[in-house]
Amino acid sequence: MKTGRQWIVACFVLVCSYAVFAEVIVPNVIGDPYEEDREYLTIEGFKVYVLPVQQYSWRGYTLEQREDERLRAIRRVTAQLKLAVTLLPPDPINELRTRVILYMDDTCEYKDPTEIPKTVRTGKIYYSPLESKDGTDRKLGRVTIRCYSAFVHEYPYKGIVLHELAHAWHDLFIPNGFENHQIKTQYEWSKECLHSGHKSYWKTNVSEFFAEMSCAYFFRSKDVPHTDMSMSEKNKALVNAAWQDPPQLSEFQPAVGSCSDESQLTLNKGEEVIDRKRSSIAAH
Ligand SMILES: [Zn+2]
Fold first, then answer.
1. pLDDT tens-digit map of 23-32
2. Which percentage of the chain shows pLDDT scores above 90?
3. Which of 17, 119, 258, 261 lies 20 to 30 angstroms, CA to CA, from 100?
4. Distance between Cα 45 and ligand 1 center (Å)
């Protein structure tokens, strides 16, 4: 039989452990504009809105098939979030949980069936900034996954959520966001000097540069450089400094001037044979 004092201690421990638990797993996205009218899932501590499947069947899928795709997409997002949470540094991950939501819907686009012999469904995955509902200028971020079936079938790369979270970190937490001078300068130099024989996706713009370098550094990229083993020392230092919490970019000196010896990076054999199977959708 417990005494009164033991009960009080037991209750206190219970409340404390709930508070710790809640802190870790319940996302606290202040000013989330969707909060009031939509249900969400909590996956790896991130808030994930998963819209129901559409109730009409112009795609020729039955409701059951669409529901099945939706569940498969949720499983995939779960696996990819788990990967990102495991590989990215923990403090930035906790910061991202408070300002980034994921949003999945059933909107698929079709290419013209007269041009292509079979119906092609396609979707998009992208990061975009989101205005906070609480009236402050505190910006939030949203990772949108459009078209469950496209995400399940057309994106073989396992690091896509990690890539999108890197965009979010760049935009929301790096000083001056996408305009950050050090990252821009390092991008311009890298584009000019590194891996000149490859049409890597990171050469698209500064935000893709940061996202792809983060993927290569913490996981692997679809393009050259595939892993940190073939990244330039400067770009490794950049990614490392940028993913501190808070970012430590003021001490980072971007490469400038003519292309140095670092531009002569050669790939090792292992890097060359990594499967470079591309997604049919380039932009993300
Ligand atoms: Zn991207």
1. 455 578 989 9
2. 60
3. 17
4. 22
